[in-house]
Specification:
The complex is a heterodimer. Chain A is an all-alpha fold. Chain A is built from 13 helices and no strands. Chain B has 2 domains: about 40-90, no CATH class; about 105-310, MetI-like fold (Orthogonal Bundle), CATH 1.10.3720. The chains are: A mainly alpha, B mainly alpha.
């Protein structure tokens, strides 16, 4: 109970304190001569937000880059050793390879499935469409830990001869095979694909909602015109609809890509990176938390930052173009 | 599950949301005539039915299991209840009581202690900043905003190592404040982005006339802009609430397991203790999902609006 009261106090203190700060700064600004007041006021309004961003994102990001050149306890410089050690270890190469596999598979599948469901559900009646979409959208509210629990139960294996309580092995044994501990099967990265299914399951709803809004926003006259010209449904979809929703497709793709890059909880809870399923965000956690190696953890994050640079560049360009069109 | 909104009249459906800068002409709004009723062939219906079935089955599995006794859950698959739903010896609610006592009850309060400040405090700070970015002129305004846009896609991991050290220096590790302060910082770019995008769609004339009437920026902000921005404020609040409640990484790093564990950390711990049995783990997992799912269903309309506003969070 005290916790909740403390939380409420924190809220009152945080909100009240911030309000008081704004009020005082605003009063101070108003005491300045008119010309200066106009100049200072915007900074009064954005200063607390900038302070939070600087303290919690920009300063730590810079510090992370610095720490990546230091040893595990950040007490001595080691140059590029963290990077060379990581990139030279077979273990980390597997981690990187898995991450690339995730990047190659998950965003594309999520976009394709989301678009597919959006377009097909669009043909149902209003009631059916709502129901379908809501079902697919459901996992968006479920945490990674919850999703991992749900799917571990699907993949659960019991020794042969005992009743199977995981549905995948129940089906598998009913077909006459021996039960398999699915999450340990790393032939052709099979278990990694099983983990990807969980992320796909969780993300398709997001993709569907955005793409559905985009599909419904395609002007009807363009579809009609194509139909009159004798195009079939498939041609209309690929030649008329898809080009017009391409912007949204890219947005969804990028968002899922970022989600995949920092995906942590599902893999952490389901395999903790064992059985060759490790990915970069789980490896980061284990370096930092299990091994207490600040230097390597920081080096992994720096690699992540480098991987994100093209996305940042795209994001900024996209934003500029949107602003110009405003 | 996201189906039913609480307010009957405009039932929120994901797809119903209008695109941000909706063009007035030639759009086929949901419910408009010709919005595809019955165009679906039987094949399409079957495919969609199958997808929905596949999407639901895993979740139904843990819901059913959470209400079965330990014996029943271990000796037969959960789907067998279809043939014997009236065999009441298999049903129980003790799993929930056990999970609650095994730490979930405690974690439940902890999650609120982290999530509420992390959701509410950033809103006002971001609203002030968004107002300045939208309605005020100052040097480097556009550059600063571009930095915020860029930060939207930067993974939070970049901040975690130095923050851990900073928190240790300030004796904050293991305090709720460590987690919610981090979330306030991490959520700030998204908050400013959503609010600024929304505010820039508000009619400029209203602000201009307030200025002519001699209202200060402070007054305009409180009396006009904040009340008009409620939908965007709600969008962000829901995002942030789900985000923080469902987060595992930051809570695990800065609070860890034990007395102050939040629900995600406790459930992750239950997963590790295989001997506890599935009936307990499933009950714990469902307890951890109840709040976000309820929030999500009740306020889905705002959530979807936030999504379609093109928000990307790193």
């Amino acid at each position: 109970m005290i916790r909740v009261i403390n939380a409420l106090l924190a809220i009152i203190g945080g909100v009240g304190g911030a309000l008081l700060l704004y009020w005082i700064l605003n009063k101070l600004a108003e005491m300045l001569p008119q010309k200066w007041e106009e100049r200072v006021k915007p900074w009064v309004f954005i200063l607390p937000a900038l302070a939070a961003i600087s303290l919690f994102l920009i300063y730590p990001a810079v510090r992370t880059i610095v720490l990546s050149f230091a040893n595990s306890t950040s007490t001595a410089w080691v140059g590029l050793e963290n990077y060379t050690d990581l990139l030279g270890s077979r273990d980390f190469q597997i981690t990187l390879g898995n991450t690339l596999l995730w990047i190659a598979v998950v965003p594309a599948v999520v976009v394709a499935l989301g678009l597919g469901v959006a377009v097909l559900a669009d043909r149902l009646g209003a009631q059916g469409e709502k129901l379908t979409k809501s079902t697919i959208f459901l996992p968006m509210a479920i945490s990674g830990v919850g999703a991992a629990t749900i799917w571990r139960f699907v993949y659960e294996a019991r020794p042969a001869g005992e009743p199977q309580i995981g549905i995948q092995n129940a089906v598998w044994t009913a077909l006459g095979f021996d039960p398999v501990a699915w999450l340990t099967v790393d032939t052709l990265r099979f278990n990694s694909f099983l983990l990807m299914i969980v992320v796909i399951w969780a993300q398709v709803g997001f993709s569907m909602v955005l793409l559905s809004a985009a599909v419904k926003g395609v002007p009807v006259d363009t579809l009609e015109a194509a139909r009159i010209d004798g195009a079939n449904e498939r041609q209309i979809f690929f030649r008329v609809t898809v080009p017009q929703i391409w912007g949204t497709v890219i947005t969804v793709f990028i968002t899922v890509l970022i989600t995949v890059l920092k995906a942590f909880d599902i893999v952490f809870v389901m395999t903790n990176g064992n059985f060759n399923t490790d990915i970069i965000a789980v490896r980061f956690f284990n370096e930092l938390f299990r091994n207490g190696d600040n230097g390597r953890a920081a080096a992994i994050v720096v690699m992540l930052m480098i991987a994100v640079i093209p996305v940042v560049a795209y994001q900024v360009r996209h934003f500029r173009a949107e602003e110009a069109a405003r | 599950m996201t189906t039913t909104g609480t307010t009957p009249p405009p039932t929120p459906v994901p797809g119903e949301v209008k695109p941000r800068r909706a063009m007035p002409r030639g759009r086929r709004g949901a419910g408009a005539p010709g919005a595809g009723t019955g165009r679906a062939s039987p094949v399409v219906r079957i495919v969609l039915l199958l997808i929905c079935f596949l999407w639901l089955v895993p979740t139904i599995g843990i819901i059913v299991t959470s209400f079965r006794t330990a014996d029943a859950a271990l000796s037969s698959g959960w789907w067998t209840v279809i043939t014997s739903p009236l065999d009441f010896t298999q049903w129980t609610i003790t799993n929930y009581r056990q999970a609650w006592d095994a730490g979930m009850g405690n974690s439940f309060l902890n999650s609120f202690a982290v999530t509420l400040p992390a959701t509410i405090i950033p809103i006002m700070i971001a609203a002030f900043a968004a107002y300045a970015f939208t309605f005020m002129e100052f040097p480097f305004r556009d550059t600063l905003f571009v930095v915020i846009v860029a930060l939207l896609v930067v993974p939070n991991q970049v901040a975690l190592v130095p923050l851990l050290r900073l928190y240790t220096d300030f004796n904050l590790t293991g305090q709720f404040a460590a987690v919610y302060l981090a979330h306030i910082g991490f959520g700030m770019p998204l908050a400013i982005y959503i609010l600024r995008n929304y505010m820039s769609t508000l009619p400029k004339a209203v602000i201009e006339s307030a200025k002519i009437d001699g209202a200060s920026h402070f007054k305009t902000f409180w009396r006009l802009i904040v009340p008009m921005s409620v939908p965007a404020l709600a969008s962000f609040a829901i995002f942030q609430f789900l985000w923080v409640w469902n987060d595992l990484l930051i809570a695990l790093l800065y609070l860890g397991p034990g007395d102050k564990a939040v629900v995600t950390v406790t459930v992750a711990g239950l997963v590790g203790q295989q001997n506890q049995g599935w009936q307990l783990l499933t009950a714990g997992a469902i307890l951890s999902m109840v709040v976000p799912v309820a929030v999500f269903i009740a306020l889905q309309r705002y959530f979807v609006r936030g999504l379609t506003a093109g928000s990307v969070k790193g």
